[in-house]
Fold each of these.
Amino acid sequence: MTGYKGKRGRLSRGIRTALALLGCLVFLGGCGKAGENTALGMEALKALDYQKAIEYFDLARAAGENGKNLARAEGIAYMGLTQYSQAAEFFLEALEYSDGWIEDVDYDINFYLAAAYTKEGKLSEAEEIYNAILDLQPANEDALFLRGNARMGLDHYEGAKEDFDKVIAMDGKNFDRLIQIYEVMHSYGYKEMGQVYLRAAMDDSGEQMSAYDKGRMYFYLEEYQSAYLALEAAKDQGGAEASLYLGKSYEATGDYNYAASVYNNYLAKDTSDARIYNQLGLCEMARGNYTAALAAFQAGMQIEGNDVMQSLLFNEAVTYEYLHDYRQAQVLLESYLKTYPDDQVARREYDFLSTR
């Protein structure tokens, strides 16, 4: 199986949301024996130090280390640096090492290649890669879901819905995936159609649903009172996720004071989840408590390996702007854009601050 090329497509928020799912496809080992520099680069990848990883990979090539493992790893590193065109070239190189026997790593590389094309806006190319995967694995739920995302971006609604219908038919009780489908449809202007899926799940499985699952279904159906009633019952068993949905349900009704108390009560017991700090910061922003918001964002940033660091960094910079410290906000956004150069919202904010 190799990568495919076609017409240039459009990139949209729905596709970017779906790419988060590719985290489950990251396998940093098991791709063959690596040389010393390649192995060091892999360790840097695990630490999310992409620039250091590339430095090791360059040394690996200079030392004669090569092969599928190295090219794949280089592609991942360039993905981390948001240099998607170069990442795609390395993934294509990695596929050239395939000997005709299709292994798990070949599917993995193709998923990465499709992600790189998607980030470049080449949705037609991404769709063709998913087509190739599905020709060999018709029941690959990830490929079906991601092809549905690509088709949404290509304004091929019927094809996308067909893919989503197949995914749901495979496992109608996978409520996480169901919500992901809703979020993608919502982002492309099909919120009501996405809610049809949620209501159908409630009708089919509502009596067997946990309070947590009911609560988040109600949340996306915008039935916030039903949502927070269910989630109040679930918060002691549902961990951070239940508290996040509970707080956001109260925020949706405008009750930011109670929402903040939900987040603070959770943090009084567990300070290990950066998402709670991030949401607390946003809630304090909505209340006009910018100093408290800044403290929340910065506390979240101290949690190593958290998956909301990008949001925390951006929110920290914006909070300084609200505190009228425009110089610090500009400095932070400049640093942020070095790591996330494709964030156009941050780019516009930085340009605005440059005129202050």
Note: The CA atoms of residues 232 and 246 lie 7 Å apart.
Amino acid sequence: MKKSYLYTLIAVVVVLATALVWLIVLNNRKAQDIQAMSEMMEFEKEQLEEEYEDLAMQYDGYQINISNDSLADLLMQEKQRVQDLLEELRITKTTDGKKIAELKKELATVRAVMKGYVAQIDSLDRQNKQLVKENRQVREQYRDVTQQNETLRQETTRLAEVVSRASMLEVGTMNVITLNKRDRKTGFFNAIQKLQFDFTVLKNITCERGEKVVYMQLRRPDGELMLKSEDNLFHFESADIPYSLKKDFVYEGDEILLTVYWQVEEILQKGLYTADFFIDGNMVGSFPFTLK
């Protein structure tokens, strides 16, 4: 009887010991599973945080190159949303799998939104590049046209100058005769009472015909202008300047010989004189002559 009881007790102890060992094993396995699950959730949370941070940095990069104000505002709003979700993720416990799953789903949503914005940005970028290219082409065309216009203007000016020069009269020759008080030619310097200037206005079929005036400036050897009156003026190069002699004549297109006289009322200087001729506001001849 006692042996039977002892055997029964031993059997119960063995069963209990076996059950205890089994429970310990199960608890250890559960603890290991929980630890593995925790580590996995921690890893997943860290990965999710990195993805949110990368997404926020992408928004920063795109905002730098955006000139469209409306699109820039939308990107700023979406960036703030990403940052808010990132902060929410950081304060979420790793054991809150449901919340982490929700934030992971939100990440997919904001990525899809960004993809749409990126497409718009790329489209705007292509349009801007096209506009820049077109603007450059327009500037180049404008520069070319400007250069062509400037070349044409210069050529027009040159041709106008050529035409103007071609239509200018020209004094071709001049001869000086010294006269005495009887208006006879003299070779004695002290006997000179009058200077006779014979000069020819050359033929020019392009010059306008009609009544004209030739003005003459005489300069002494010392460079002083010989004048009868300071009121004797004519217009030349936007100014009124004095003249020594003038002659009215009618020009018909052919060569014409003209004569003017200078009455000597001053003490003449020996040396080199100069006679300059002006017609129609142009200097048309300059001749040196010597009195000795």
Note: DSSP finds three helices and ten strands in the chain.
Amino acid sequence: MAFLQVIEPGLQTTIQDAGRIDAQRLGFPASGSVDRAATRLANLLVGNAEGTAVLEFPLVGPTLEFERSTFIALTGAQFKAELNHEVIPMYQCLQVQAGDILKIGPVEKGRIGYLAVAGGIQTEPVLGSRSTTIRLQLGGFHGRALAAGDLIPIKKQTVLTSFYHRQTQAERLPNQEETIKIRLIKGPQWQWFNHLNQQKLVQGTFKVTNQADRMGYRLEGTKLQVPEQNLLSTATVKGALQIPQSGEPIVLMADRQTTGGYPVIAVIATVDLGYFAQCQAGQKIQFELITLEQAQQALNELRQELDQLEQNVLAGKYRPPYGISRVASQRISRLLKR
């Protein structure tokens, strides 16, 4: 077993995987990464299985020292990242050596980044998942965000079957200067809202507030009239738009409670959940209502693209430059540029 040493933890770096979905029936939040496509791509880049645990970091990334050689990939939001003071690309598999220091600075575009390490983060699973739920002090690394001095267990990895770098839909990030479109499907209480309020939802403009975290994103802007019906506590889903008494939506995220009492007018289409999660405070949003069939088709298209990339990797179409180290290749590259 090898370790990552945390030099600086970033804003709130946690360990996340696909989440403890089955534990929701016991009342535990699912947790897991908020941008699933970016997480899957990070793992794919370093040869990991889809649900392998990664590091998730919002707005400001961590600084880490590698005890052993391995391979890494950064995906999600655009961060300026440096390996031993040299800027490195995102969405690409990179080899690191023992003693290397990775510094991930403030975000440049988007909100949440991911670091995958070959073999995955090796903390002990809790209820079938390594995901961190901070408010319950559950999973991850002692149930909390990472802190300076932490030693995070990883596998020693000196050989990787393939490298690749290719743009995909998973790299889509919100433009802070524009109003973006987020696709919705009707929620279980859609009919509780009259036609005027349904139109307000799809014709109005909303803005992500500073009250945005792994539990939920509060929006401000167009206000909806809350229906008079009383709603008993009911199961929640990721991406649900709850309408509280204020009339401004709350979008439930990965660490949401398993049940809730606010009516859900709509649910963000799964294909757009990662895109929405990457919104910073102040991002303007307009919603577009689509059918369940359209949402399923769009999600299938994204999955098929990632599935194809995975098959290409497994087939060995992207071969690493064996016999030459990263340091040597950088030196050769600099010589060729002279």
Note: Residues 292-314 form the longest helix (23 residues).
Amino acid sequence: MSEYCMVITTFENNEQAKPVIDALLEKKLVACVQELGIKSHYVWKDELCNDNEVLILMKTTNKLYEELKNELLEIHPYETPEIIRIDIADGSEGYLSWIKEVTK
């Protein structure tokens, strides 16, 4: 496993995502957060759902992942939030160094 990772989650909209994003940045659990509008199709409680959502991409270190995951579970408004870690196998040295510099 590398030193860095990207963590993804989703929200209903940008307004719902903003306070969570701000809290994670202020606590230095993430270096960068990007928002993308998506359409999600899924089954929830035996019902087919099709919703517009915001996909959040967070860049951080693997060392901080457990703390980030626990914070998301605590403050995320969804009953069962998507929290997925993707290992960053390689990247530009300057960008990865910056992630390390601005996180805890």
Note: Strands lie at 4-11, 32-44, 47-61, 84-87.
